[in-house]
Amino acid sequence: MSKTLKIDSTIRCDVLIVGAGGAGLRCAAEILERRPGCRIIALTKVPHPQKSHTSTAQGGLAAVDPKDPSDKNLFHMFDTWKGSDCTADQNVIKKISEASWEQIVWLENRGMHFSRDHEGRLLKRTFGGHTIRFGESPAYRAVFEADRTGKGINDTCWGETIKRGICFMNQTIATELLFNGNRCVGSIVFKQKEGSFVRILSRATVFATGGIGQVFKVTTNCRQNTGDGLAVALRAGFPIMDPEAIQFHPTGIVGPGILASETLRSVGGILRNRHMEGFMERYAPKMKDLAPRDMVARAIETEIREGRGILNPDHRIEHVWIDLRHLPHSVHEEQIPEVRGFFQKYMNIDPKTQLCPVRPSQHYHMGGIPTNEFGEVQTAFQETVPGFFAIGECASASFHGFNRLGSNSILELITMGKYAGERVLNYMEDADTDLPDEPAEATFSQFSRYVENRGRENIGKIREEMKSLMTENVGVFRNEEKIVRAIEGLADLKKRAGNIPLSSESLIMNQELVERWELDNLLDLSMVIAHASLNRRESRGAHFREDFPERKDAFNHHTLASMTEFGKVNLGKRSVNQCIFEAKEKFYEKFGIIERRY
């Protein structure tokens, strides 16, 4: 079969962007605005860019209005540092926070419909962990478009790129990176509808492929979020930074796991247990329901563990309630209409009059392909890779450390998209345009194996077993025994995956073939996540070890995990940047290794 696989065509472009969500489109828009006529090809795994996962983001994006008399960029930086459990990089925190309002203006000037009050001023809401005056009181910092903020961003950036001549390749995946020496010169891609492999040669390649949600059984992520970009980078020899840093959103809707936005708590929603107690006061006396997500998720799981959860009769899952019944009619109709609709559609519940069942659902990956503050990918030795960039959730600069604050993710998308776009333009000035042809041996070997495999195993069954294994053993609460069980189980699943037959050898619109590729991506990433979780013998942010419940100074670093052969994971370190603390300017002590209480 390997002899029959071939490159059907070669395409040349200036920039290849893999992923057409908020980060990829913002990067493309920046490049096209600054250099009209630049040839950009953007791949998207889904049928249309507007189906990208960014469109599901609900609540808002954090940005300090320079005209706000009570808020400052310094407070946002502090909140992000503290929220990260002292593991975000301070150069990145500073760069993104200081650029935040400029990006709000950029979006609004291009037509995004931010919600406003009756006097025409931008409305703002508070999110967990966002404060003024270093934790004194909640900060109203997040601007929003009702509860469809991500869709507003995605649509706006998509429109900007369309009118400037971007070329989209829908239902297309990148399977292999191409290099000339140490310089990235493009990618091998597989066009699902045509069943063809194409070599795309580019002066710069940007990965913006999104998250890893399908590693877990219950997730707020879309079906396509299978960590593809991370897996391709991993197989090319690059490390994944902080793979163990995985956020479980406190309020996933019971059953589908769909996100019930943090907006619900920011507008006054209260988490209650089976006794109708507002229990968050026990875990975060000051911030209560608006504590950072990792704390609220652990609180909910603890309530359930200790017998104060409620068993859902339809899904046989224990949960807690979020109480929205006391909120004004205007809040339900104007600020949370989409989330209210989710409860009505999927649970047959009216949040105006009924309690809503929620429990933690895997939401976000703080780890990713390691980059610098400009989105340039780095090796395990922290050397910049010419021509290779990564932005958005698939990348880790790191703005979020070991816990992301709500409303910081889509802020990162648009700011890092802008900075990476600027860097791409600078890089292309000196990039060689006489790009060599490269073989696609890795891709052909991989896909030939899929088609040639024989046996009686089933893709869906192995995938579900993997998701259950990871959820039960590398979820909200972790310990050595559980993680070892996961590692052993993953090794067995990988072996079994070699006995999966495909029902058709055709490459054209063969969804089963793509799912087989996704399964390898998920298994590879799961193994790296598990090994990194086992190695980090402490609790930090979203990584909570029951056998090591305290944070330890010995782990004040990022993890760099590499794996060129399944199961053989090499672990390295990257220092956490503390430039704000080291500058010794006013309030510098707030950016040391501080206690994390709310």
Overview of this protein structure:
The chain is α+β, with helices and mostly antiparallel strands and 598 residues long. Among the domains are: 112 residues, Alpha-Beta Complex (Flavocytochrome C3, Chain A, domain 1), CATH 3.90.700; 106 residues, Methane Monooxygenase Hydroxylase, Chain G, domain 1 (Up-down Bundle), CATH 1.20.58. Helices cover 33% and strands 22% of the residues. It contains 16 helices and 21 strands. Strands 1, 2, 6, 7, 8, 9, 17 and 18 form an 8-stranded mixed β-sheet that branches. Strands 11, 12, 13, 14 and 15 form a 5-stranded antiparallel β-sheet that branches. Strand 20 and strand 21 form a beta hairpin. The protein is globular, with a radius of gyration of 23 Å.
Per-chain topology:
Elements: E1 7-18, H1 22-34, E2 40-44, E3 61-62, H2 73-83, H3 90-109, E4 124-132, E5 137-143, H4 149-162, E6 167-170, E7 172-180, E8 183-191, E9 196-207, H5 228-235, E10 240-241, E11 246-253, H6 263-266, E12 270-272, H7 280-283, H8 293-305, E13 310-311, E14 318-323, H9 329-335, H10 337-347, E15 356-365, E16 369-370, E17 376-378, E18 384-390, E19 395-396, H11 409-428, H12 441-452, H13 459-473, H14 480-497, H15 511-535, E20 557-565, E21 568-575, H16 579-582
Parallel strand pairs: 1-2, 1-9, 2-6, 9-18, 16-19
Antiparallel strand pairs: 3-5, 4-5, 7-8, 8-9, 10-20, 11-15, 12-14, 13-14, 14-15, 17-18, 20-21
